[in-house]
Amino acid sequence: MLLSRRLYPAKAYFSYWLNAVDEQSLHGPFLFKFYNEVLKPKSPSAAFEPIEKLRKALLKDKRLIDLQDPGAGSLVSLSQQRTVASIAKHSLSSQAFCFFLYRLTRFQQPEHSLEIGTSLGISAAYINKASSGQLTTIEGSPAIAAMARETFDRLACQNIKLIEGRAQEALIPFIQTTPKLDLVFIDAHHSEEATLSFFETLRGSLHQQSIVVVGDIHWSAGMDRAWQQLTQHETVTLSVDIFHAGILFFNPDLRKETEVLWC
């Protein structure tokens, strides 16, 4: 079973490789602009050096912590005790994906953002660096949440609120007291049921200009099914598959379609 889960992303990538296109195949002005401003740029900035220096430190951190994982589990270890280095290696968003989140946040300029699945706080630091708006991030493991707080302190992050608790349980009181969300990054649990449940819970907090990023849409067959259902949702217009994530748009001025794009 575990071997099958590990092989699934490789099979999915072959399909992505066959179908992905670049800006040469795009015709709509919005999607062309989005591709060239958010997906195409690759060059890192010196401004990210403190974050990446901390990432390197986490990758060498041998502290052992008790991991409470309420999600779909790890493809690497079934142990509930892991080193910080192991969590950093297998759970953090890659440097390239964090650059994408930064560019996306700059593109969107959100007033209110939400991340579901904080991990050690690296991706949140990138989102925070790109915007002066408020970012709320939710983490289910108390030990990992404590590490994320260390990350935010060491990077002097401002306007980040970390909520500790199981995501679905924490979401309900959060959205009851929060204005509309402009940017959402779903990166927790990685199961079909949880992903669809998060989206349904968030629906009332989204608006026509919101952007929702769903991480690891090809992580498993269940996540693939969840992504397909989300692209067909009545509120979703444009959806973009960049393999490591899916991006959902709700603007009624955009044509309802799904694009598979290189990133």
Automatic annotation (TrEMBL):
UniProt entry keywords in alphabetical sequence: Methyltransferase, Transferase
Domain of life, per lineage: Bacteria
Enzyme class, spelled out: transferase
GO molecular function: methyltransferase activity
Enzyme nomenclature, EC number: 2.1.1.-
Keyword hit for Zinc-finger: no
An individual GO BP term: methylation
Signal sequence, start to end: none
InterPro entries attached to this UniProt entry: SAM-dependent_MTases_sf (IPR029063)
Protein name: Class I SAM-dependent methyltransferase
Lineage: Bacteria, Pseudomonadati, Bacteroidota, Cytophagia, Cytophagales
